[in-house]
Amino acid sequence: MTVRPLRYLGDPVLRTPTDPVTEFDGRLARLVDDLMDSVRLPGRAGLAAPQIGVGLAVFSYDVDGHLGYVVNPEITHTEGTYRGGEACLSLPGAHADVERAAYAVVVGCDRTGKPITVEGTGEFARCLQHETDHLAGRLYVDLLEPAERRKVMRAVAVP
Question: What is the enclosing helix (H) or strand (E) of 60?
Fold first, then answer.
């Protein structure tokens, strides 16, 4: 089991769009294993590769009984709205109410390149959107109004 250390606000990897995965090899398999091991820790719902310092389009999730990962994810469909509390492992100590789609569909592939589709509602949909945003270099605070964003940013307690 390999739990990788987290990257925090201020690390440029969090604001850099990821590269798509083009080689489905042992290196990718190890990255997926590390993401899965790392997301299983208590208090974690999702983890994107940039959060462990890797600029590839991969994320893992463990929320509402859903455990898995997606390589080269793309949100292909959303419906409705869902407002609720959101936080991020890379912005410890901060949280805010964020509006997301209530339903989301993500397509991508597994570690071998086989196409997969993942869909979710509520908190799982929030996680899929949050982690996909990470791969584009976006953080949930980017969705907030300026005053709320400043308030949340002041609460961040980077170790």
Answer: strand 58-63
Of 74, 79, 131, 145, the catalytic one is: 131
Find, among 38, 9, 5, the residue nearest to 139 by Cα.
Answer: 9
In eight-state DSSP terms, residue 69 is E
Alpha-carbon distance of 145 to 70, in angstroms, equals 30
Given pLDDT bands bounded at 50, 70 and 90, which one contains residue 89?
very high
Tell me the pLDDT tens digit for each residue of 6-26: 999 999 999 999 999 999 999
Q: Catalytic annotation on 131? A: yes
Q: Which domains does the chain have, with CATH numbers?
A: 12-155 (3.90.45.10)
> Which tokens go with 115?
């196409």
**For 3, phi and psi rounded to 5 degrees?**
-100, 120
Q: CA-CA distance, 40 to 25, in Å (whole number)?
A: 23
Q: Which two tokens stand for residue 92?
A: 């410890």
Q: In whole angstroms, what is the distance from residue 58 CA to residue 132 CA?
A: 9
